[in-house]
Design brief:
Chain lengths: ~500, ~325, ~325, ~325
Amino acid sequence: MPDDVILRISNVSKSFGAIRALRGVDFELRRGEIHALAGENGAGKSTLMNVIDGILKPDSGEIVWDGKPVRISSPTKAQKLGIGFVHQEIALCPDVSVAENIYMSTTNISRSFLMDYKGLEAKARNVFRQLSDIDPSVLVRDLSISNQQLVEIAKALTLDCKVLILDEPTAALTEKEAQVLFGIMRRLADSGIAIIYISHRMVEIFDNCDRVTVFRDGQYITTCNVDEIEPADVVNAMVGRVIENLYPDKQALADKSEDIILDVQGLTDNKRFSDVSFQLKKGEILGIAGLIGSGRSEIVKGICRLDGDVSGDVSLNGEPLDLKHYQDSIAAGMVYLSEDRKGDGIFLDMPISNNVSALKLEQVASPLGLINRELEDGQAERLGNKLNLKCGQLSDSVSSLSGGNQQKVAIAKMLSVNPKLIFLDEPTRGVDVGAKAEIHRILRDLARSGVGIVVISSELPELIGVSDRVLVVREGRIGGVVEGDMITEENIMHLASGLDAQELMA
Amino acid sequence: AQAEGGLRCEPGETYIMNVMVSGHPYWVPVYQGFKQAAEAFGCETVFSGTPDYDITKQIASFEQDMVKQPAGILVHPMQSDPFIEPIDRAIDNGTEVATFAADSPKSKRTAYITSDNLAEAKFAAEEIVSQIGDSAEFAVLENPGQSNHDLRVTALLSYMEKHYPNMKLVGRQATNQDSTAAYRATASILQANPNLGALWIPEAGSAEGAVAAILEAKADVLVMHADITPTTLEHIKAGNIHMALNPNQAMQGFMGFMSTFLAAHSEVFDPFNDYKVSGYNPMQIPFVDNGFSVITKANADSFDLNVYMDGRDPS
Amino acid sequence: MEIAAPAPAEPTTSTLHKLLRMRETGLIAIILVMFVIMSFASPYFLTWVNMRAMVMAFAVEGIVVVGMTILLISGGIDLSVGSVTALSMVIAGWLFLQGIDPWVASAIAIAACTAIGAFMGFFVTRVGLHHFIVSLAIMVIARGACLLGTGGRPLGLYTLPPEFKFIGQGTIGPIPLVIIIFLVVVLVFDFMLRRTTVFRKVFYTGSNEKAAAYSGIRTKKVIFLTTTLCSALAGFAGIIYMARFGSAQPTFGLGMELNVIAAAVIGGASLTGGSGTIFGAILGVVLLSVVSSSLALLDVSVYWQDIIRGSILLAAVSVDHYLHKKRG
Amino acid sequence: MEIAAPAPAEPTTSTLHKLLRMRETGLIAIILVMFVIMSFASPYFLTWVNMRAMVMAFAVEGIVVVGMTILLISGGIDLSVGSVTALSMVIAGWLFLQGIDPWVASAIAIAACTAIGAFMGFFVTRVGLHHFIVSLAIMVIARGACLLGTGGRPLGLYTLPPEFKFIGQGTIGPIPLVIIIFLVVVLVFDFMLRRTTVFRKVFYTGSNEKAAAYSGIRTKKVIFLTTTLCSALAGFAGIIYMARFGSAQPTFGLGMELNVIAAAVIGGASLTGGSGTIFGAILGVVLLSVVSSSLALLDVSVYWQDIIRGSILLAAVSVDHYLHKKRG
Ligand SMILES: Nc1ncnc2c1ncn2[C@@H]1O[C@H](COP(=O)(O)OP(=O)(O)OP(=O)(O)O)[C@@H](O)[C@H]1O
Ligand SMILES: Nc1ncnc2c1ncn2[C@@H]1O[C@H](COP(=O)(O)OP(=O)(O)OP(=O)(O)O)[C@@H](O)[C@H]1O
Ligand SMILES: [Mg+2]
Ligand SMILES: [Mg+2]
């Protein structure tokens, strides 16, 4: 049914200097379908979406909208056609309220002369009724990253659009919010809206989408109906090989050790968390689960002294630590990978190699404090290869990388210092399946070699896949711990939301 | 308000001197003259104005002076026309106003005391010609936008043109009292004109930079400038600067006070004119020339402002 | 389900509470304190004449501050406002002296300044240069044009017709027309900036240009327009100055840019864009003006004035910042 | 296995290629073009004396530019450099006139300027104010201190001992010592900024302060230090000026800040921090200086000079921007 097709891309190419991000790709979107777009990091997914939204101008190729060839020269134009876009990178105005952010496009085209702040807030509150309970009158700068992501989604849902593009919207969301989102998506699709859904989470694609298109290396590979294929086929098409084990083997019983790497006792900041106590044993990977805003990030940042006033005892490898600043934590060998990559994870305007070396410049410098560029580049190249980083030159700025590759740079930075303990907050956010498996394997190797690994993740399958033990945080307190076979989605969700806690703890 | 002993102030009778860029050293000797005259008549003085180069602020400060109902204000109006209304209003309210160093001729101010910039320029031109002959090359630095500096330059140029047509103007650069800019400009002029005979500079700040450039280039140029700073004074002593023309600032302040004071005490004066019927202040004088000094190696020692100010109160 | 996310805070509607939460409350408090101190320190301070002189001293500059604040909110900055104000006077004055009707001459001058703003806007939005460097170049060029147009000498415009001078010198009742014009400009733009959809886009653009562009806002157009508006208002201010002073001075407004930017920043405008209010910026102007006036009124030695002025500025901004932070 | 990740591209090592990719190439090209034009336009341009005079004219300001560039990279800005330079002269000159050894007096003056920088750094990092407003206040205060220290009168320091004046007036071989000092400062800081770990942290801090903090960098300390360094270099420059001109002028360096910032920005320093080079900033100084010198050498009418200067500035920055963008 060709008249079903609302958007057709043919033979679109786009290069950034020497990098050919898109090489003559085709893509077809039908009314009322949820169409997944899959591909490794840097495959060109976001680039194509930016072309569709008029943010990037394609070098060649054709866009056919509703049967007619069109030139989309700006987001304004795209908006007029009826294209809504949730970007991979959060793009909100921090100085204005949530409500205004959500209705920014509406305000833009509004014919009314005056702002109706009350009306906007009421409408926004309505939108959030189904999604979350963020107060629409607060400023966006006061929201956590996951809540900002929800605002982004809410923003797109209010658009009166025919095509809705969601570029990794769930990367920082937990199961609960994601499920709500999928419900909404399905309703929209049923009303005839076409949705492009980009994600690295295969489960989501297979549970919620109708068709899937795969890109590899800037090229179109294939499009299939989801019910006709298996996840492994998609992965295979994406990376060009079969990935056998998404998750490495867990800690063997024989390797279990009673040596304690990290011991946290009675950690409290009296605002966002209190009385947090737990231990990390040698060789194990500890996962931390919880709902959005439960305080997972805050606890871990508190341990590293990244934020605020914290009291409580922390000892590393049996030695009590007296930390004043995060610098002390780094010096002690304890590092934190931030969940907010763009905000505090990387230096967007600086070269890749400089980003990787930032944590401990001394490593790439002479004793006199002179930076040795060869060492610096070598370090970046080594770690980049290890993480399968896709980039042009190491001297290129990080802003030229795809989202997932930026995340790899952030991880490379953590690995560069050979830490004793790493806290990873949403470590594989936006990272493709292949690289994810690679990162998980690296984490397991590190754990085996005696490095402490603590992973916070909103993606439950990941937590379940990598952790030997999962700590569940609820409202700033430890809600419970699950271990071994007890690590299941139901158990974690129950603990996270406070149901049947007693029962499980037993 | 005349006491037994002749012309004197009543207790508390105050005269204000109002200027712009009030931190500028030019005002220092002017105010000393103003104060000395005031002391002679038992009057109080206040130094006021705005530290900024800003007409709006100066007018505001002038109006604030007015609020205090002083007997008189000696003002250096940054611009002539904007001061017409405030000056007239002050006079209507019983505060007499005289101007100095810059005028507001269309206002009702009773007197204007100033240096004769034309006379300075003429003197400088004659001196240059007498030193290097009447068919030589000369250059000027200038400061466009500042009227008295402008006048010193343009008057010299037109005087030269009229009386010594063979004198060749080979350089004319704006340096805006900035010694670094003057250094740069002079160096370039010297480059382009190896035969440069003389340089006329309407103020001292630029002269400092110009002399540095001339010394460095080891050029033999006759430098003359107006105003004085300790550094140019030393250059005069050392022979690097030929001479400087310095307006008689203290006289400006002294006569400025006298004019304002007499305007406020005009009852002692009954001139042969129509003032009684027309109702204006009989103490009217369009222009008082405070004269200027010629500073050379011979008399330079008397022009050190820091020595002069030693033991005196600047405000 | 007892979900962790906290309940949205109660909207606080009590007027007092609202007042306390306002960005400007700290500044108002500081200015009030100064007023109280000054009215004890000098009997002349709280007089009608002094107040009028004080407001007259900042009213026209206040119009420029309005334009600068809007430009700052959009993420720009303009160093050329002083030169452009002077150029406006010079153009209008020069045309008038050539025999052109002063109203027409003024319109032409304002149009020329608007064109200068558009020219800067072009370089910023199309060529991609930074506001700072473009407006610095224009500052130099416009000052040069002033010199060229006047030969460096002020233009005496005593012959301006009285109905024209009325703009700058007239009063309506006891209140100078200049102050009324200033208040109208401030109120109009304050209202528009707070309430209209068009000006909200200025905030969005300044807060995150990319996000605004993604929402379909033509951010370049917004920046172009705020840049143009700022110059246009500077041109307008130049005309009022001309009518007030009856002359056009080529050196007018030297250093005005720093004063104007300082006022806006004291009033809460962010130098990185996205926030600021006209009301706050005007409070900034008032603060600077009260300090200057007080120093003059108290006959503080000129050699001390700058030191005191700078220290009060620093103290006021610190206190305001502290109060603001405390309220959260 | 056809894996997506390409091998990192060949590092291009050819010197020519490297040169073409350098941020500064565009500026160098523009300056070279000016040199060629000028050497045809005036036979005096390409002479040793003219070149020396030109470098002398910007050498000391160049030292201030170094400090400003580093501060800009760290995300700060300093409007007080002109006043602080003047204050340094005034302090040292005043102390000298009180009978203190000029070397000691100079050391005290530089220390005082450094303290001023630390004071600003305190307000920025501890109180949390913006560099712009803090340095504006300090600009006013330092200028006031100059007035207070001198009574507004320039201090004549003709009696400075010759070995002290040698700093500003002496030559080593044919080269003025001032130029040598300037070159040493530039080379040292250029090297340090490019190569040392300490200065790399300045880039991290300016690029993304939060990310830098999350990389264990004490960003507040970095900002504190760059702010202090900038004032210290301004103080150092003041001493050289004093030795050169043999006087201390309280009004010295008015408006210097804009010149200095313009030079750094022309040279590629970002006003939002994170990028810039000393080499580029010095090229910016050279560019501004060549323009000024050329206008003087060609005896262009003073009424045209500002217009031409501003236009060339705008044109040069546009061309540089275009070339830079084209190279990607
Ligand atoms: N502005 C840019 N400049 C240079 N190269 C770019 C730029 N944007 C993207 N690229 C390159 O284009 C390629 C495709 O990037 P794109 O962001 O489309 O990938 P993606 O499929 O969205 O990956 P991810 O899953 O990591 O988000 C990458 O190699 C990236 O480095
Ligand atoms: N900068 C901030 N200002 C105010 N509140 C904050 C800030 N950052 C976090 N919070 C709040 O603190 C609580 C805990 O946040 P935290 O980021 O630790 O949660 P989390 O469990 O990591 O969840 P997620 O990161 O998915 O939001 C939340 O209610 C959050 O809204
Ligand atoms: Mg992407
Ligand atoms: Mg978190």
